[in-house]
């Protein structure tokens, strides 16, 4: 390899690295602006209860897909640490639903806030060929309705969460 080719390759590599850095910075800026726009609309999540009754369903292990602003299945919520996928467990209690996430705090969905629990094929950028996502539509204390998605590891467990009349 001669000096001209080496210098040309190094310049090309530097330009590509700068372009990649530029696009990553733009993605992070967009995500930060989404959080800023949603902070007031989302507000604070409901506090965890001191005690709960016996588990009615679950714990069901799976993947927390994310939360979206209802009824738009692809309008992802970034505020209040709701925008990141993680492994988790979903458990139903008489007082509500607990979604425990690894690497993030739990989400408590009070029973009086739950609007519907249904099966979905797609949510928050996750698409399946069957209705394998448990979508919980609920109202935040701020009054905003969101859908929280959870995909069980064992897809037969979806029927334990989704009732035919809902």
UniProtKB/TrEMBL annotation:
Q: Where is the composition biased (Basic and acidic residues)?
A: 148-166
> Is Transmembrane one of the keywords?
yes
Protein keywords? Membrane, Transmembrane, Transmembrane helix
Domain PH: where? 42-164
> Region labeled Disordered — which residues?
147-166
Q: Does the record's keyword annotation contain Transmembrane helix?
A: yes
User: Where would you find the membrane-spanning parts of this chain?
Assistant: 6-28
Question: InterPro entries annotated for this entry?
Answer: PH_bac
Could you identify this protein by its name?
A: Transporter
- Species: Mycolicibacterium neoaurum VKM Ac-1815D
